[in-house]
Q: What sequence folds into this?
């Protein structure tokens, strides 16, 4: 191994830039979980009776479930009674701010510090942002502009009040409340999240984006996102996330459901940068997320792109159910496991319809003491005539204390289906570095260049602004590490 | 109330002879279910439903029409898991080569970590023992035949022990065949290859399509040794091969090469774990399958590169050809890597015949049927061609050809 301890040490010593804490008055439920907590959350949000019932059904089911331990990750047992399930910024008795002007300036400051300005004049051009702070959405920008096109983009709680028929129709249709341990927990206690509806034939004029921030201590964040693209519509959505640096682990169990009707296209991009903990594995976020989309109609398309650089543990498999004929599913992922991070991520492509196609490109980078696993399922159903899948998962190892693993599952029940899976694992070659050095490129730049080249296929899929951001994030995260 | 599975465990243990802990470990583990990750796609429920009896020797058994019969050299024959001295031929063994049945030797089985291994350890009746001493190069292939003549539920536990001393060389050809009934063979082969030993091990499994076959191969390898294991699997209603290879020395080259051709309602499952514990080793897994009718195939390959096993070169490929609408393949080519200076690749493909290849052949004057056959044979031939022992390779090539023409 050519990377000497010094460079590795420097690399490990990288500061987490988003680790500050905003001291703000908050209405936080005491830790613990029982039916009353579920009822309390529901009442707080002034939810209709049927939604409370749904939450309670989920909670009762959750009580019968066992925490799964099959992922390739290690962590101490989570005490679900020591977590607070609801925290909203602002004093207890205050009403929710009606507009951004009423929002606590401290909150706006926080988002500005994070590089997500919510003020009208400073907004990112061409991007509408929904900002979620702990359990609550603090504001959504560009609402009027979107309304002109009939696009609904608001917080989940708002959607429950204003578009209950849409929520009722689609909630839990992609990820049922019985789906898995963490999704069921989320179904019982989810607090907020984003809701998007794109009407028939509309191409959403702006990039939609949600910025998640965990701030309060000892809380879990349980957001729920639902995106519905009606026939012939198109939407590109991006989520970003950060959290303060803390010694204890915080739980983040989100659910994302995507529904694409006939000819619709959803592009969902994630830049996940939760606090990863320190090099000894203290602190950091447990990111246990269920993300799934369904291509319901013919010729629909769902594309997941994820750049996973944060979290102590990442455990998520954004999936696509390809039910409509000729529908397309794509998954592009860059997962970085540095410090003592553990990532067990991948995708599931369930082919049900004819001529369905899916592409999976996964790039895993392990450095420090990081453990990176790709776990994926490609399933060709009996009726998936002429379905096609191509999977490529590549791993790059930097340093000798990290690990890279691949666990693909391929199940084929139709002979006309074609499945290809390829995987490689390698380290940055000394000859590659030497080649760059010989041309006057410093070793650090050479490593960045090679890593960026390695990830290019995925970055290319991100919206322009975020591709730049992701690339910069990768450079920062890998500073000082020489392969 | 007693669960049916436990009931099956009791019935099985009651039917079989026992030693050591008397099958307590097996009783504790029970039959695996599809909830066990390692048995996710292979349900052993049809085995648990058998009316178990202990298989007994059969004096009327003969080796007529057996594979490898034109090859000269020592042969060991087991009928229903019992050694047959009449059919075996162990004359004129050179110095340093010991071949016998295992029951004659004092033998302590290794620890089992799975249910079928535990069952075998408690109840094995006999098996082959091959011991090649240091520096002995034994060129003649050693043939081992396992014949089953038992009826439905006849259960045989067979244990083989193969030891190659340092710098030795041997070729072993195994054949598994049986009468058409639902018998159950549960075999374990312990293989240990010393430093710089060379071994070629061919397993031709052509059990009755109604029979059940569960086999484990546990291989430990020393420095610089070369081991090639070829698994040609044609038979069995459920045939499961557990292959565990520990590469605990530097410079080892291990090859696991397999071909499975299930048809009808057969299920053929290969479950492999290759552990790389030392640097500078190579392991190659090549498995091809051609599936017809309602057949199912499972491939599980896991390469585990331990910390410090740098310069590992591990390759894993699994290719499947589906000939019918009802055939199913489940494949899991997995890599688990804890060292950074390694070259590991795996690949899996599943599909029907390539239309372009067929077009190419048809454009050269072959009819569609001939084109199909040619592609199929090439697909199977790729695996057969890796068998080093020439007479065995030619015969297996013929047999596989016949099997494919037969459909």
A:
């Amino acid at each position: 191994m050519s990377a000497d301890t010094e460079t590795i040490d420097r690399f490990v010593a990288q500061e987490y830039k988003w680790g500050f804490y905003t001291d703000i008055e908050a209405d936080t439920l005491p830790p613990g979980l029982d039916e009353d907590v579920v009822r309390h959350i529901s009442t707080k949000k002034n939810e209709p009776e049927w939604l409370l019932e749904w939450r309670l059904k989920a909670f009762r089911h959750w009580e019968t479930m066992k925490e799964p331990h099959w992922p390739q990750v290690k962590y101490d047992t989570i005490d679900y009674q020591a977590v607070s399930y609801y925290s909203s910024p602002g004093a207890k008795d205050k009403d929710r701010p009606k507009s951004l002007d009423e929002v606590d300036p401290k909150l706006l400051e926080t988002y500005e510090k994070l590089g997500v300005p919510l003020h009208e004049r400073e907004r990112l051009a061409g991007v509408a942002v929904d900002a979620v702070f702990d359990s609550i959405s603090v504001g959504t920008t560009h609402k009027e502009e979107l309304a002109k096109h009939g696009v609904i983009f608001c917080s989940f709680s708002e959607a429950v009040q204003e578009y209950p028929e849409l929520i009722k129709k689609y909630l839990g249709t992609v990820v049922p409340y019985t789906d898995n341990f963490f999704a069921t927990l989320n179904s019982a206690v989810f607090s907020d999240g984003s809701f998007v509806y794109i009407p028939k034939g509309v191409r959403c004029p702006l990039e939609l984006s949600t910025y998640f921030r965990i701030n309060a201590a000892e809380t879990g964040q349980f957001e729920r996102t639902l995106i519905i693209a009606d026939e012939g519509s198109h939407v590109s959505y991006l989520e970003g996330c950060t959290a303060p640096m803390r010694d204890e682990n915080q739980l983040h169990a989100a659910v994302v459901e995507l529904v694409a009707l006939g000819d619709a296209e959803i592009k969902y991009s994630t830049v996940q940068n939760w606090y990863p903990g320190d090099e000894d594995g203290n602190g950091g976020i447990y990111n246990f997320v269920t993300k799934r989309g369904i291509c319901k109609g013919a010729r629909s398309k769902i594309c997941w792109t994820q750049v996973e650089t944060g979290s102590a543990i990442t455990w998520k498999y954004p999936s696509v159910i390809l039910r409509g004929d000729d529908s397309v599913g794509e998954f592009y992922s860059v997962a970085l496991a540095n410090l003592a991070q553990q990532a067990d991520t991948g995708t599931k492509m369930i082919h049900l319809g004819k001529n369905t196609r899916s592409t999976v490109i996964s790039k895993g980078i392990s450095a420090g003491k990081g453990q990176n696993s790709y776990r994926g399922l490609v399933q060709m159903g009996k009726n998936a005539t002429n379905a096609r899948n191509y999977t490529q998962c590549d791993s790059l190892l930097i340093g000798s204390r990290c690990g890279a693993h691949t666990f693909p599952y391929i199940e084929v029940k139709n002979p006309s289906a074609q499945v290809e899976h390829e995987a490689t694992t390698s380290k940055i070659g000394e000859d590659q570095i030497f080649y760059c050095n010989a041309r006057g490129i410093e070793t650090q730049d050479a490593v960045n260049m090679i890593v960026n080249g390695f990830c290019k296929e995925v970055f290319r899929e991100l919206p322009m602004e975020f591709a730049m951001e992701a690339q910069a994030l990768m450079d920062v995260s890998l500073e000082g590490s020489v392969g | 109330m007693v669960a049916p599975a436990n009931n099956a465990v009791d019935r099985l243990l009651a039917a079989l002879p026992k030693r050591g802990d008397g099958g307590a470990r097996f009783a504790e583990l029970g039959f695996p279910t599809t909830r066990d990750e390692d048995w996710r796609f292979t349900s052993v429920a049809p085995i648990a439903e058998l009316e178990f009896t202990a298989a007994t020797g059969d004096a009327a058994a003969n080796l007529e029409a057996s594979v490898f019969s034109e090859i000269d050299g020592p042969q060991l024959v087991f009928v229903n898991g019992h050694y047959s001295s009449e059919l075996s031929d162990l004359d004129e063994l050179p110095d340093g080569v010991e071949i016998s049945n295992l029951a004659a030797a004092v033998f302590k089985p290794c620890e089992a970590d799975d249910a079928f291994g535990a069952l075998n350890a408690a109840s094995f009746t006999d098996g082959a023992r091959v011991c090649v001493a240091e520096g002995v190069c034994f060129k003649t292939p050693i043939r081992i035949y396992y014949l089953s003549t038992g009826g439905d539920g006849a259960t045989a536990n067979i244990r083989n022990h193969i030891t190659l001393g340092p710098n030795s060389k041997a070729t072993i050809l195994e054949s598994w065949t049986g009468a058409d009934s639902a018998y159950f063979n549960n075999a374990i082969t312990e293989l240990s290859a010393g430093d710089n030993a060379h071994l070629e091990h061919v397993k031709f499994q052509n059990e009755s399509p109604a029979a059940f076959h569960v086999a484990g191969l546990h291989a430990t390898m020393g420095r610089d040794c070369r081991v090639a294991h070829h698994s040609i699997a044609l038979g069995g209603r459920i045939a499961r091969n557990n292959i565990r290879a520990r590469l605990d020395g530097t410079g080892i080259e291990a090859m696991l090469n397999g071909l499975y051709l299930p048809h009808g309602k057969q299920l053929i499952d290969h479950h492999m774990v290759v552990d790389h514990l030392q640097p500078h080793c190579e392991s190659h897994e090549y498995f091809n399958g051609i599936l017809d009718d309602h057949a199912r195939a499972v491939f599980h390959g896991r390469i585990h590169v331990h910390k410090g096993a740098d310069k590992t070169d591990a390759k894993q490929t699994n290719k499947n050809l589906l000939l019918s609408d009802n055939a199913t393949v489940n494949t899991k080519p997995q890599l688990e890597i804890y060292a950074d200076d390694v070259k590991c690749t795996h690949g899996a493909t599943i599909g029907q015949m390539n239309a372009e290849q067929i077009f190419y052949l048809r454009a050269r004057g072959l009819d569609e049927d001939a084109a199909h056959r040619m592609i199929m044979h090439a697909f199977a031939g790729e695996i057969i061609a890796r068998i080093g022992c020439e007479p065995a390779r030619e015969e297996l090539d013929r047999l596989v050809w016949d099997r494919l023409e037969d459909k």
User: Anything to note?
Assistant: The CA atoms of residues 214 and 271 of chain B lie 11 Å apart. The interface with chain A takes residues 37, 41, 310, 320, 322-325, 327-352 of chain B (CB under 8 Å).
